[in-house]
Design a protein that fits this description.
single chain, Thrombin, subunit H, six-stranded antiparallel beta barrel, about 10% helix, about 50% strand
Amino acid sequence: MRRFDMRLPAIIRLDTAGEFQTETQNVSAKGVFFYLDRPISAGTKLEVTLTFPPHVTLTDAVRVRFKASVIRVESPLPSARIGVAALIEDYEFVRSNGTTDFQSVLQRESQSPN
């Protein structure tokens, strides 16, 4: 799947460790990549909530909540942040007019000039 460099504020919810704020580095129709400041293991289930802004959706802002599984964890960078790649298993719109779906949002992004 094509990845889109999107720096979007995200809230990561882990069952055992609570919520953390971060920023996505890239997003595709099947996955998301972000950094955390704490260790996490491959296979961990998590929830990611982010908002696609109007310039991406070409309508109103769209808030999406993903259920995902961590599929890759990158070694800590010098800043001690840990890269996390997660496979999106399911998603729902937190607030939406019901006409925009996640794949449509990403398709529009791929057609817009960078």
